[in-house]
Design brief:
440 residues, alpha/beta, 4-stranded mixed beta sheet, 18 helices, 12 strands, 41% helix, 10% strand
């Protein structure tokens, strides 16, 4: 598999991310429709910035808090700059069997839009190809958290800026832990012991899982030291050069997942065919299983886990350094050769300014990418938020790594769920690393 083929495979991943969850929809609609600009610049010379996004600007039949928050900041940009932001959206009826990622790559390669909302693998791909503008000169870039700059910098250029930082954690039923006298686990060993106690007390499957998010366990263990040991840049450089092997980092996490499966703490067969939240959410809410994994926004949303009949807490994943949040970063990018690139960059500067991010973060109750903006989170999220504010986390996506992380790890975890051995999974990482080096 070459790098181009590998990215096509990655594009088929539904990486559900808060605030950009719709980025990952797999479409169902007319096959073979040609890509075309849906909105043209007004004949009267009105300044228009074309934004390609999965979120419609208006939809009277649906309530979308993330979209509403984004709309508020877009309105700020339109008023301040005197431009119109024209939304062009990815919808199911337009693209059958093509993911948002695939369509975004096509549109960006053909300069069909100005501003794009991007998933991590696409940020890396377009950044490496020189298709995205360097945003490091924007005023808003000066206020970004280091975590955002690290994740979205490609070849020394900041190529994307998000409106929120998406954090994944373990959602736990604190009442069930208390019932069996269990402390919330910090390390993999403590986590295994909690699962053992639950299993011995009649809880058939202690961990509710799906086919998308078990990779979070792997990242927490693989990169706890890399991102928190004070030697991040050197370790990433060694991985990119081939001096270090991704498989050596990943092996402990995969061995841990294999143990969870072998002991019956995770139902691999069910997880392999389960969609996120839909597969495990019902049992978690019914208190049949005490542990699930999800993203920050799920704790704020009543359609997910925002309203439970028990005390819920969201903590980091077990690691050698304690509870570890996992943070994949999405972001807005501006096409380097876009027709309205200058105006698009100005729009992005406004919607990611501290003023706009305060509005966005308060509306969505999310972690801001700006180090100057914070909002009070719901009590359930405080343990996870405290770790992030302490600067303790691992990145689930990092455009500075030559091998794309989030999508590739998800696919290889699925191989494990389907019966592959840990050694076979590590061989897959080795192939990816070798193919990446060979494609340069």
């Amino acid at each position: 598999m070459n790098r181009k083929e590998n990215r096509k495979g990655i594009g088929r991943i539904v990486a559900v991310l808060a605030g950009a969850a719709a980025l990952t929809l797999i479409s169902c609609g007319s096959r073979g429709r040609e890509l075309k600009n849906l909105i043209q610049e007004d004949e009267g010379g009105e300044r228009v910035v074309n934004l390609f996004s999965p979120m419609e600007k208006t939809d009277p039949n649906a309530e979308n808090v993330a979209r509403s928050a984004s709309d508020l900041t877009i309105a700020m940009a339109e008023e301040e700059l005197g431009v119109t932001v024209a939304y062009k959206t990815y919808t199911a009826e337009d693209y059958q069997d093509k993911t948002y990622d695939e369509i975004t790559l096509d549109r960006a390669h053909n300069n069909m839009d100005d501003l794009y909302l991007l998933n991590p693998d696409v940020i890396l791909a377009l950044g490496e190809e020189g298709e995205l503008m360097d945003l490091s000169g924007l005023e808003s870039a000066k206020n970004l958290r280091d975590i955002v700059k690290t994740a979205n910098t490609v070849d020394g250029k900041l190529v994307a800026i998000p409106q929120e930082v998406v954090a994944y954690g373990l959602f736990v039923n604190k009442d069930m832990f208390d019932e069996y006298g269990l402390s919330l686990p910090e390390t993999p060993e403590e986590f295994l012991e909690c699962c053992r106690v639950f299993k011995e007390n009649g809880i058939e499957t202690p961990i509710g899982a799906n086919r998308w998010w078990l990779e979070t366990f792997v990242f927490a263990q693989a990169y706890a030291d890399l991102y928190n040991g004070g030697n991040t840049e050197a370790e990433i450089a060694a991985l990119n050069s081939g001096e270090a092997r991704y498989s050596d980092y990943m092996r402990p996490g995969f061995e841990f997942l294999k143990e969870l499966i072998d002991r019956g703490y995770v139902d691999a067969e069910k997880a392999l065919v389960s969609e996120a939240i839909e597969g495990e959410g019902e049992d978690f809410l019914a208190q049949k299983t005490p542990i699930v994994m999800a993203y920050w926004g799920a704790a704020n949303t009543e359609t997910a886990y925002g309203k439970t009949d028990f005390e819920m807490q969201v903590i980091g994943f077990p690691s050698s350094r304690g509870q570890m949040p996992v943070v994949p970063i999405t972001g807005f990018g501006v096409g380097a050769e876009a027709e309205h690139a200058e105006d698009a960059a100005k729009v992005l500067d406004v919607i990611t300014s501290d003023e706009a991010l305060q509005v966005y973060s308060e509306t969505n109750r999310v972690i801001s990418p700006s180090k100057n903006v914070s909002v009070e989170c719901v009590p359930a999220l405080k343990p996870l938020n405290d770790r992030i504010e302490e600067g303790v986390y691992v990145l689930g996506s990092n455009a500075g790594m030559k091998v794309e992380q989030w999508g590739n790890t998800c696919l290889i975890v699925r191989e494990l769920l389907g019966g592959a051995t840990v050694d076979e999974c590590m061989a897959a990482f080795d192939r990816l690393q070798d193919e990446t080096a060979g494609g340069e």
